[in-house]
Specification:
This protein is an alpha/beta fold. Helices cover 40% and strands 17% of the residues. The two termini are 37 Å apart.
Length: 326
């Protein structure tokens, strides 16, 4: 099915002279890399077309990739084509101005719980949306032009969304497509320095996380990053959210959760797991995502405790009915 979807998307791109790219709120490496990478790919391939990425979001973590332009007046979108990338549900699209365009294309690798758009290309097994864009290029490389700038954006998304190619969603095809990008001459030393070097305060914060993290009876590891902790260590939103990865190597813990206080009284939840499917749990708490990497939001300490309790029960049931989970 993917070839037919790709061909339909390519034909639709050829049809329009003005194209707008959209991504999800709380931008990450994949949605940023996919939108910026596709923009560069289309600009290089179709220089006569207008390719816009209008997004007011900012990210300290991804600042090295460059800023995007802010939103335009409503009339500017009329008659254009919207391509929404890496966004499972329409309520998570960072700008609702995509609805002003004549047609909408959805390109995504999340579980397709909320289909939208006139054309859909969803591959839940793909390790990242960037992997899908590289596959799109590879399928039509006689028509499309991949430059080093586009390759850098797309490789950034592939690296970050696959956990540096460690997650089970990574396949031989993932690595083959990554190789296409590397052959464009990406400076990986500089890229990895941008992605993985930490400020001293961030490392001190991680030390406090290791002191304060907790674990439930069945092995759910969790940490609550309060507003006070974020202020104490001068954390960016990305630094605070990235703490979930600090909990991923505890023996017997197959689910780990980070609760990060937002400035509006809500708490962001980042859920990760090994072997255990957790997206249904996230969906019950105003979220969703992948089978083993999801996000949610809680609105009170009571709701936070309820989520932890449900996760503990889920993990207990998994351990009782499965073997070989380390």
């Amino acid at each position: 099915m993917s070839y037919e979807n790709k061909l339909a998307i390519l034909n639709k791109i050829k049809e329009y002279t003005r194209i707008f790219l959209f991504r999800h709120i709380r931008m990450d490496g994949d949605c940023t890399g996919a939108t910026k990478g596709l923009q560069e790919l289309l600009k290089a391939s179709f220089p006569e077309k207008e390719i816009y990425l209008l997004d007011n979001q900012t990210s300290d973590y991804l600042a090295f990739l460059g800023k995007d332009s802010g939103e335009a007046d409503d009339s500017f979108y009329e008659g254009g084509l919207a391509i929404v990338l890496d966004t499972a549900t329409p309520d998570r699209i960072s700008s609702q101005k995509y609805t002003l365009c004549r047609e909408v294309i959805k390109i995504d690798h999340h579980i397709n719980v909320s289909p939208y758009g006139d054309l859909l290309w969803v591959e839940e097994e793909a390790s990242s949306c960037c992997e899908m864009i590289v596959s799109f290029y590879d399928t039509f490389k006689d028509t499309l032009t991949l430059n080093e700038k586009a390759a850098l954006y797309l490789y950034t998304g592939m690296v970050t969304d696959s956990g540096r190619f460690r997650f089970r969603s990574v396949s031989g095809e993932t690595l083959r497509l990554a190789g296409i990008l590397l052959n464009c001459g990406i400076d990986t030393d500089t890229l990895y320095a941008h992605l993985y070097l930490n400020d001293f305060d961030v490392l001190k914060f991680r030390a406090e996380v290791y002191r304060k993290m907790k674990i439930t009876e069945n092995g759910v590891a969790y940490i609550h990053v309060t507003a006070k902790m974020q202020e104490k260590y001068n954390l960016s939103r990305e630094d605070a959210s990235a703490v979930v990865s600090a909990l991923d190597s505890i023996k017997g813990s197959l689910i780990w959760i980070a609760f990060i206080d937002n400035g509006d009284g809500t708490t962001r939840v980042r859920l990760r797991s090994r072997f255990v499917t957790i997206n249904s749990l996230a969906e019950r708490y105003h979220g969703g995502g992948h089978a083993m990497a999801s996000g949610a939001t809680v609105y009170s300490r009571k709701e936070m405790n309820a989520l932890i309790s449900e996760a503990d029960k889920l993990l207990g049931e998994f351990k009782q009915t499965n073997e070989g989970w380390l």
